[in-house]
Automatic annotation (TrEMBL):
<keyword id="KW-1133">Transmembrane helix</keyword>
<keyword id="KW-0812">Transmembrane</keyword>
<protein>
    <recommendedName>
        <fullName>ABM domain-containing protein</fullName>
    </recommendedName>
</protein>
<feature type="transmembrane region" description="Helical">
    <location>
        <begin position="157"/>
        <end position="179"/>
    </location>
</feature>
<dbReference type="InterPro" id="IPR038762">
    <property type="entry name" value="ABM_predict"/>
</dbReference>
<feature type="transmembrane region" description="Helical">
    <location>
        <begin position="131"/>
        <end position="151"/>
    </location>
</feature>
<dbReference type="InterPro" id="IPR011008">
    <property type="entry name" value="Dimeric_a/b-barrel"/>
</dbReference>
<keyword id="KW-0472">Membrane</keyword>
Amino acid sequence: MTKQMNQSDRMESDDTPVTIDIILNVKPSCREEFERVAAETIAAAEMFEGHLGVNVFRPDDSSSLQYRIVFKFDRLSNYRLWESSEIRKGYLAQLNRLIVDEGKFQVLTGLETWFTLSTNKAILPPPRYKMFLLTWGIIFILINFMNRLVIPNLSFLPPPLATLLVSGLMVFAMTYIIMPRVTKLFAKWLYPRNHDAQQ
């Protein structure tokens, strides 16, 4: 697991939101201890600035103790602070004793964080051209909405301040409202293999 964690050194340098996807195979005799240490690790991560939440997917089949943990940070720089912290290193050493192998570790940044589904499978981003087309279409609609209903009501503000406000509203809407729903709506087109496998 430590070796795979080091792969995050190759991540993008942009200070964008990040989604961290971890899959671990727990030793059968260590399940209770793993649950305890994992809960303590998650609680520690929540204390760090920029932590946006975590989802824990527990194994459905008792014969395979595979856990998946997905958590998000608002910025790559804030995630780096957690990643390099001594408290995380301490918990990581404890977790490494409780798992069968190194596990799988993914860090998604930028637009890829908009295209993540709630599933117990590893996060596989869709092709970039699909992300581009879908994002382009949504932004086109948003810009027209802003031009008609929002910008005319901001004429009393200086142009730079109005632009700052409008761009902030667009990014907020894309990140927290629109893209999570649009991703589910277009899931069959974005992730055809995943859906075929589930049927």
